[in-house]
Amino acid sequence: MRIFVRMMALVVCVSALVTAQGPQNLAGQWQGTINPGKELRLVFVLTANAASGGYSASMHSIDQGGQGIAATVVTQGNSVRLSVAPAGITFEGKVAADGNSIAGTFTQGPGSLPLTLARATKETAFAIPAPPKTMASDAPLTFEVATIKPSVPNAPGKLFTVKGRDVMTINTTLADLMTMAYDVHLNQISGGPSWMENDKFDITGRPVAEGIPNVDQLRGLLRGLLADRFRLTVHTEKKEMQAYVLAVGNSGHKMTPNTASPTGLPGLGFKQLGVLGVVNANMGHFAGLLQSSVLDRPVVDRTGLQGRFDFTLTWTPDDSQFRSFGPRPPATPDPNAPPGLFTAIQEQIGLRLERGNAPVDVIVVDRVEKPSEN
After folding, report:
1. Coil, strand or helix: which one is 215?
2. What does the alpha-carbon distance between residue 231 and residue 292 come to, in Å, rounded to a whole number?
3. Which of 214, 287, 343, 349 has the most CB atoms in a 10 Å sphere around its CB?
4. Does residue 218 share a domain with residue 194?
5. Which tens digits make up the pLDDT trace of 348-362?
6. 199: domain range?
7. Conformation bin of residue 99: beta by default, left when phi > 0, alpha when psi is -120 to 50
């Protein structure tokens, strides 16, 4: 079991307000340990809200960086339910008679583990790491050192992430890297040799500058790496092509606003194909993920929505989706399966995804070489 599965993300500290009726003495730090193969320390921080009679909360996985992620709290009598929707996590338990522990079950996806949360004291509290330092706005977008290695043959999936100071990709083609670096769909890349879509690489790069890059800085770092190590030169043209248009539904969106880190990295991760958790992402980030990993054509953001949001989206993928992830086994018919993507987007987050034509930027490859040695 993995607590966070990320395509490109640092999960940032946020809090979500939830009203609840029940025990009034749950404010504070609650902590415990699960063992899904190795011990992981978990912390839930609950803060009482006098106006609503409920709590705001955040969850921290101490051994996976400790960054907070919004949790909701519902209480009924001595029963407590904590939900972390973007990560697909729930904890359900009962408060002990002395009010100092909650024994229950931790669930993420299909897996469950026993978990007892203890009320932390000053002496016993797990230290929650400070939020990571962000990269300066005027930082040079170059890598101090970068390694590029061929990926393990036939490895499934792909990954873009930032771990500590290091920018990392796993199982990514040059075309994948370009879609991230230039924020385009594969259909928006023109020219270049066939190996651009076939040869896969694992990349680790440490930026010259300290701190965690934001999305624009991350893209700048990747563009510099492609120019330096792949000798990539391109130019941009405008072209009308088939696309998907993302817009707000008639009744308005249903996503939770996130104001905690307006310039931080978003968290967008698949717990499995068709189960997407999103934290601290704007609509450009969401549209970019749909076009780079899920759909077969570009996605144009016409929502007009500003700011960042948290949400979970669950759907049943069809054969046109996730093609870059490689062949998938035939789906087993399931009458209880979630709806398709277009319906799920409308019902679950209040947006619309529609087919249409739109003018988009096309990245034309003028020159490229296989990467230089490390």
Report:
1. helix
2. 23
3. 287
4. yes
5. 999 999 999 989 999
6. 143-236+363-367
7. left
